[in-house]
Amino acid sequence: MSDRPTIEEYRAKITNKQFQAYKCVGCGAVITPPSGTCYSCGNNEMDWTDVSGKGTLVSFTVIHIAPDEFVDEAPYYIAIIELEEGSRVTCRLEGFDPLKPEEVELGVPVSLTYITEGEKTYLAFKPT
Amino acid sequence: MPLKTTNIVSAAQTKFGKLDGLTLREIFSEAVDKATVDAGVPKEDIQAAFIGTFIPEMLVHQGHTAPLLLDYAGLKGLPATRHEAACASGATALRAGIMAIESGIYDTVLVVGAEKMTSVSTNKATEALAAAADDTFESSIGLTFPGVFGIAAVSHMQKYGTTEEDMARVAVKAHKNASTNPLAQFQKEISLEKAMTPRYIAWPLKLFDCSPISDGAAAIVLTSAEKAKQYTDTPVRILGTGQASASMNLCGRKELTSFEASVAASKQAYDMAKLSPKDMDFAVVHDCFTIAEIIASEDIGFFKPGEGAKAVRDGVTALDGDKPINPMGGLKAVGHPVGATGVKQAVVIYKELIGEAGANQVQNHDTAIMHNFGGTGATCVVNVMRRADA
């Protein structure tokens, strides 16, 4: 383990379904995905923090034509979520029919979950 | 202050499309010859070359392309540097050329953009293109390029009421303009109904919302004001240039209905040129996807945020409209050989400004703006140009 948070650990925490965000030691801003420097205060010291897992749906798309690695999963949602803590993540979306995207409303409350596809685990959110 | 001395004195592109049987260096060389010897600019006058290629390492298994390509084009020995900024590679090469002329180090330089994309499978090309997004946090969960712009489209539709039909109209316009452009990949008009064919790539984007995979190259010669008249009676001045970057990740941006690097680069270019959007007769913008043209038309200040779609509906951006956009057909219908695109955009502006755009000539053609952006919008380059005698 590094004495400071690393991207490898961030990704491992998603794989292990124990999501944590970066937190700026200087100002306390919650940062996702990892950044080497705080967007708010410029500090470069980071620590881990738990998040509430609550957020809102900012935007999304449905991938129909997927790269080889993801072909078996298509069609699937990719979404931008704003966490309650103010930071945003790009993730998968669960609980919506990928063939009825017109029924999805932006701004709806969502909560953290995970989607497992084979050996892969994705950070995901579902309607609260 | 406006740039002091940079002039474009020749500009050319190859045919864009699936150029079977031609390698990257041959396509590159054709563009160079068209912009130099064929245009009355002796190769001996070229002092340095700035070259945009995106990802030949993955597309044709070739790195260190600048000296290799330049050698094939008969310019071995010159300083040759490759510039990479995804789809903005060409325009970053152009900016380097501009700075080289403005600095006074060189009198005359060559700027070339080139890409050979069709010698690998579509899947391989798509994989190469995906390298322009953040692999660690976005591509690795299955986000694709059309997906990035699908997300922007969803936000624009929600916030402003833009529709899938509005986006389809951008494709119809692009194909109409390209139908009379002999160098375009698709020289065929399409109906609105066809553009709306529900073959979804990344909802709400459909097949006809996306630019194609293409081969091609484009080249321009830049020189100082002092030397420009040696080569042509109608040089084109580059008055202002801007470049900005933004977060690669979409989740790193507060705004998804506008690209902040586009807004910032546009402001820099207008401020430098001491001109504003109302002074522009037309624009060439980066329409990698139809929604990208609508957003770009707002980001460069032609229309207020949210009014880009209405402008398309009302024909304002058509070839014969008040503010033509992509008069030769854009990336959408002319093709998008990634590294070539930023230079090709400057070629289009040059041809239009000097009145040599043939059937695609815009009516007013003194001053124009070009907007080239890279990848997810993480790099944007904007240039303001004016015919020297205007």
What features would you describe in this structure?
The complex is a heterodimer of chains A (128) and B (390). By secondary structure, chain A is mainly beta. Chain A is 7% helix and 40% strand. In chain A, a hairpin with a 4-residue loop joins strand 5 (76-83) and strand 6 (88-93). With 390 residues, chain B is of the alpha/beta class. Chain B is 36% helix and 17% strand. Chain B has helices spanning 24-35, 56-59, 65-72, 89-103, 122-130, 145-160, 164-178, 192-195, 225-231, 260-273, 290-299, 308-313, 330-334, 338-353, and strands at 7-13, 48-52, 80-83, 108-115, 200-203, 205-206, 216-223, 236-245, 282-284, 367-374, 379-387. The radius of gyration of chain B is 19 Å and the shape is globular. The interface between A and B is medium-sized, with 32 and 33 residues. Strand 4 (54-63) of chain A pairs antiparallel with strand 5 (200-203) of chain B.
